[in-house]
Amino acid sequence: MAQDLSWIDVMDSDDLWIGEMVAVESALGPLLMINIDGTVCAYENRCPHMGGRLSDGEFANGVIVCPNHRWEFCAHSGRGINPTGQQLNPHRVRIVGGRILVASGDS
Ligand code: FES
């Protein structure tokens, strides 16, 4: 049975510029918010390797690099690039009235 989604207001869209990656504390826990060429993505702010805080890493050319051991992830999909076979925990995103909303119940 499909689970109902609810939407959590996490930040103002003006506070996440193109090319930026920021940490947000939310009702869903720590989130990594990324603006990739105008597309906003949200992930749990936790590396699947040993729990590194991804927002302390790097984001360039669509790639997130964990600060701890340099694992790399596609910012669009959250899939591992190096190593492969890994996946960040994503959340669906909506922008309504200049606010970024993140779905609860989809991960
Ligand atoms: S904790 Fe992220 S690569 Fe090790």
From TrEMBL:
SUPFAM superfamilies: ISP domain. InterPro entries: Rieske_2Fe-2S, Rieske_2Fe-2S_sf. It comes from the Bacteria. The keyword Transmembrane does not apply. Its cofactor is [2Fe-2S] cluster. GO terms for molecular function: 2 iron, 2 sulfur cluster binding; metal ion binding. Pfam families: Rieske (PF00355). Coiled coil: none annotated. Belongs to the bacterial ring-hydroxylating dioxygenase ferredoxin component family. PANTHER family: FERREDOXIN-RELATED (PTHR21496), RIESKE DOMAIN-CONTAINING PROTEIN (PTHR21496:SF0). This is (2Fe-2S)-binding protein.
